[in-house]
Design a protein that fits this description.
Blueprint: H1 2-24, E1 35-40, E2 48-49, E3 55-56, H2 58-70, E4 73-78, H3 81-90, E5 95-99, E6 109-111, E7 117-126, E8 142-146, H4 154-160, E9 165-169, H5 172-180, E10 186-190, H6 191-200, E11 206-221, H7 227-243
Parallel strand pairs: 1-4, 1-5, 8-9, 8-10
Antiparallel strand pairs: 2-3, 5-11, 6-11, 7-10, 7-11
Length: about 270
């Protein structure tokens, strides 16, 4: 009798595992796993294109692990930021490894509930330039921005300021070079990609003032009717992996830092 009960329990557990796996591993009619099209941009060391052209970065690696756990295949597309916005809006991609609270995408995406990455926007400057302890320090100066970046809508505010001159760099490395050559007084760029470059070419003359903190997230295109399902599947898979210790613990989402004087509408 005991042996019969144990066998019955084992069968039930096996059946339950099969049902759960079927729910976590969506398949196309031909039995293959569903393919999720993923946009990524040049943002080392978080997301970037490797030397041989493959997607790389710790957010890319994390996304691969989460997608495998959730039962999806991934197809990566390397894009400039502006085209990423367009492809999310028209459904060319299903997902972007991006940042939270982007006003231009409010009606076009679902953010993951999980925020697996923390990001810092900084003002970079030369030693002969004052630090940015209040946003008014930018007034009367030339600020270098990375082309295509909206900075969570903050770019719009900067463009409206008559006493802040704006110039653009095509990428992070060019922005640092422009700053060194005094083609701008401050460079607004994120800490991770700038430090990645400065670690390769140390320059102690370049200083940093933190402007604000933000969080990274998976952004799902609402042009895909399964966006909510994809978000739930990724969130659940991410939590399972963190609980098993396969990924770092979930970030405690604290109130974000903003430098004094930062416009309220873009916090």
């Amino acid at each position: 009798m005991l042996r019969h009960s144990s066998l019955l329990l084992l069968c039930l557990l096996t059946l339950l595992s099969t049902v759960l796996w079927a729910q976590e591993a969506p398949a196309t009619p031909d039995g293959k796993r569903e393919v999720v099209r993923v946009a990524y941009v040049e943002f080392p060391p978080i997301t970037y294109r490797g030397l041989s052209g493959e997607p790389a970065g710790y957010f890319v690696d994390m996304t691969r692990d989460v997608a495998k756990e959730a039962g999806f295949e991934l197809e990566f597309l390397y894009l400039p930021v502006s085209r990423t916005y367009l492809y999310l809006q028209n459904g060319t991609v299903d997902l972007w490894l991006g940042m939270t609270d982007i006003p231009a995408l409010t009606d076009d995406i679902l953010e993951s509930r999980a925020n697996p990455v923390s990001l810092q926007l900084s003002a970079w400057y030369r030693k002969d330039t004052p630090p940015v302890e209040h946003l008014d320090a930018l007034r009367g100066n030339t600020v270098i921005l990375i082309g295509g970046y909206t900075y969570g809508g903050f770019r719009d505010w900067l463009d409206q300021q008559k006493d802040i001159r704006i110039t653009e760099a095509p990428n992070h490395r060019s922005g640092i070079d422009m700053l060194k050559r005094k083609r701008g007084d401050y460079l607004l760029d994120y800490r991770q990609p700038v430090r990645e470059i400065l670690d390769q070419r140390p320059d102690h003359a370049i200083q940093e003032s933190e402007i604000r903190t933000r969080y990274g997230a998976w952004l799902f295109s609402l042009a895909n009717p399964r966006a909510a399902m994809l978000r739930d599947a990724f969130d659940d898979a991410y939590l399972r992996l963190t609980e098993r210790g396969f990924l770092p613990p979930v970030l405690e989402k604290a109130p974000t830092f903003v430098v004094p004087g930062f416009p309220e509408a873009y916090r």
